[in-house]
Every structure is written in structure tokens, then in C-alpha cells.
Design goal:
13 strands; seven-stranded antiparallel sheet; four-stranded mixed sheet; 4 helices; alpha+beta
Amino acid sequence: MARAHLQNRVLPTGEIVSAPFRGAFTGNRGILTFDEHGRLGTSRWKHQHWIVCDLVHPRGRYHGPQPARGWTPLFFLDEAIALAAGHRPCAYCRPKAYRAWLEAWTKAHGQRPGHKEMDAVLHSARTKRNRVQVRHQSLLSDLPNHTFVLTEGRPHQILDGSLFPYENGRYGTGISFDHLRNAPVTVLTPAPTVAVLAAGYKVETSLADAD
């Protein structure tokens, strides 16, 4: 019998699931463990440095879904989802993105942080100790592109005045939210990250693959 997919695909809601869809990015939260069925143990992180990495190591090596040591890869359909789940760009394998992130963070928050300070701020804004995602409320009109919100029971990515629903590893058709611009919504993307997006950080998204 074929082995089930590992439980290593991350959703905008912060959940980590077993699913067949592939990711354009991988990420690191430390060494996590799987049981014989590919299911994660209790832990969802081992440190606060949640990063978004390229699929291929900077030296050209492909690490695979279970490297021999050092970390456990998680996978995201695109960077917007990784940011919604609370990650930020890796300084080692994505230095250009990391520098752009720092510049936008400094513009948004008024100071240039060290990575430990920044990750502590993000950690308190993305998850509770019981692994429940931290969410907040905002008006749609106040949110920048690539923010994820929860509406009609599904996560949606904002882009140019439309909401694109996300489900099962793909985006659906965008729906204009002009009539809802002043409506309050539940925001999945952590508040510090929303501020970074508003400050101009450029996100890599797979919305070109939407229906």
C-alpha cells in the first residue's frame, strides 16, 4: 500500500495537513517528528524563527521532504500563504527578499530589528501556546494586497480589489469586494506582517494559476 502524504503542507489558517498539492516554497520551524503514518507529533515548532525558504539549497542541493538532520521542511503553495501562517523570508537562501522585508519592516514599525527581536514580535502575533492561530479584525478597505482574510468560511487572498478563495491547494476566481470595502473581516495574516505588506514588501504569489 502506498504511503500517505506527509503532514507537512501549511494552510493560510495555520493548519498543517497531509495533501497532494506541491509547494513553491518550503519553510523551517526546527526538527519536527512524524509517526509511521506520516502524521506530525504534538509539536508545531521548536523555535520562534519561522522562515520561508527556496525549495533548492543555495548550493544547488535538493534537501527532500525529510533531510537527514537539522530541520523538518514544511511546504506552502506560495509566499502569501507562508506569510499568513506567520513565516518571514529566510536571510540565507533568500537574501534579496530578506533585505526587502527588513526595509519594509523598518518603514512599517519605525525601527530596524535584529532577527530574534523580529521573530519574537511575529510569534506573539501568529499563534497561541495551544497552537491556535492569532487572528484580528480589520476593514477590508484598510488591508493591503496579499493579506489573507477569512470570509464565507474560507481563506481568501486580497489582490487589486478582489478576494481570491483558496482551497485544496489552488485559488478560485476572484470576486470584487467593492460593496464590502467598509465591512469588518477576520484577518489571518499576522498584524505585524500586514503592516510590512502595506509598507511595500513584494510577495511571490501563485494567483496567476487561479481559475
